[in-house]
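User
New here, explain this?
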Amino acid sequence: MRLKTAIFGCGGFAHRHAGNLAAHPDKFELVAFCDRHVERAQAFSDRYTAGRAAIFTDHHELFDRVALDLCVICLPPYGHSDEVERAAARGIHLLIEKPIALTAEHAWRMVEAAERSGIKTQVGFMFRFGAAIEHLRGLLDAGRVGPVGLMAARYFCNALHAAWWRDRSKSGGQLVEQVIHMVDLMRYVMGEPASVYSLQNNLFHRHMPDYTVEDVSGTVIGFRNGGIGVIYATNGAIPGRWINDYRVVAARVTAEFNDANHATFTYTDGPELRSETVASEEGYHLRELLDLYTAIVEDRSTRTPIREGALSLELALAARRSAETGAPVRFEGG
């Protein structure tokens, strides 16, 4: 089965998806690109389809004129409007990058439209597809290592990013736009939150009038099972390096992750310690794309349907609200 596919939003990150789509012509046919800057859409069409794919600057026109099976949405947070609802109404499946919206209300409208239509959706939380994360989930699902009591995650970078990213009203802030990957991983490993408390400051970029997002943050999440998650992040670390790693302590295993694909598991349930290493170089983004393809072909759920995108966004937004008010935010049912 070959899916007629369009990419909506032709910025730098969209190249990851375009490359993976073009590398699997037996599964995907790139037929259209859409971006508000026509030259960007044309550049993608030229590079990935030798100019054969149609180009658009308006997604309404794209959906009206091109028969699609799949749309890959790579918009910045502030750029989302009604594209999910329009695609869902036409039965077009979706891969949508995170965060899926800037408000929980918008996110849940997307969820309602997608679930009502029955389309398959995948949110771009690609670290769920890391080999080491998969191994941990397998251990937890099998009941072999007990519940997770503590997870610590680090996200370090040092870059000015795009102008829209530095504007809190357009990006939501570093935690909402970027560190949300760590937020989602914690939900994936530890379940749903009961409370969150966060401190967030702009320490290193106060001299920049257009830099209104935080560049240091510390966030503590209490989970319903009693476990605790700690996320510490900054945009003031080592220039040119993007670091995300994690530590997980469960009842019968402690895992140290260099990233989602590489980790050492030390089993603590016997008289002697036993270690196991998981390592993979397989690409996360390709795996999430192929998971969506299989879900469409086999009519099953994806690993990260759009509802998961809304739930992780709610937690990230709650952390931001905690930082703004100086008080913990508690969740219903927590």
